[in-house]
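Handout, section B. The chain below has 298 residues.
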Amino acid sequence: MHQQLDRVWRRCFNVLKDGGFLCINIGDATRTINSKFKLYNNHTRISDACNSIGFTMLPSIIWRKQINAPNKFMGSGMLPCGAYVTLEHEWILIFRKGNKRQYMTPNQKLERMDSSFFWEERNVWFSDMWDVKGTKQKMEHTSGRERSAAYPFEIPYRLINMFSQKGDTVLDPFLGTGTTMQAALMCGRSSEGYEIDATLKDVIDLGLATMDLDMCNNYIKQRFDRHVSFIEERSKAGKEIKHFNNHLNVPVMTGQEEEITFNYITSIHKTQDGFFEADYEISSDMRNVPYQLLKQII
């Protein structure tokens, strides 16, 4: 498996721009080999491979996804010396190609700030431990496989906001059911993906074509609503807030947040060439505006 994956990481290195990021979600595995039960550290094997290719490894994220099944425990039940710790987390390995991305002109710096995230989002997203509930694995619209191995939408949504900016292109070499493409579309990024299982093509197309715009825009607006709640709580506590975002008409914690805009989706359509395109509208003065009026505003 890893010999095949090594080829993918090398190809990712080749196509990434300098300053671009590679994020790999991988779980470790347990195996019984020659009657001996052991852990196989997939994340270590991949880390070594990517370092040897030339990537710079950055601090990783542990994605904790608690399992509630009563049969999750391995080994001899309640007897000591024969039971094993459960694997209830996966790794999100983060690598960068080359040096930090450069922003040389005022326009480049402004475009970067437009894609900023809120101070309190930074504190959650850039923690090395994420508690994100897993997603349904059972496949319902394809005869090719029974399980998708899909990760929850929140995982790529966070990573795309953290390590790219609006207008960038996001590449997923293991496209699966298309979750990364859906997240990229909601973040205002272009995306490309590769999937060797041809039976998933219709699943990917259907997922993009039937994205619920109300649900998508509400997901985006919830970021704004959470920020408003954070600011209100901070104000009640008498804590100082020094900056203001005129686009969103809301106080913010730092000067880096003053140019944030949210891009709500107005339409998604498939072109004659088979591509999916989205139209966006920039939000403005969204404080205290009910979501029910969002469609009229944009």
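Note. Confidence is low (pLDDT under 50) at residues 287-298. Compare this with the example in section A.
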